[in-house]
Amino acid sequence: MNLYKRNLLTLLDFSPEEINYLLDLAAELKDAKKRGIKTNVLEGKNIVLLFEKDSTRTRCAFEVAAYDLGMHATYLGPTGSQMGKKESIKDTARVLGRMFDGIEYRGFKQETVECLAKYSGVPTWNGLTEKYHPTQILADLLTIREHKGHLAGIKMAYFGDARYNMGNSLMIGAAKMGMKFAACAPKALWPTEELTNKCKEVAASTGAEIVLTENIEEAIKDADVVVTDVWVSMGEADSVWEERIKMLLPYQVNSALMAKAKEDAIFLHCLPSFHNLETKIGMEVYEKFGLDGLEVTEEVFEGSKSVVFDEAENRLHTIKAVIYATMVR
Question: Strand 46-51 and strand 102-106: pairing?
Answer without folding.
Answer: parallel
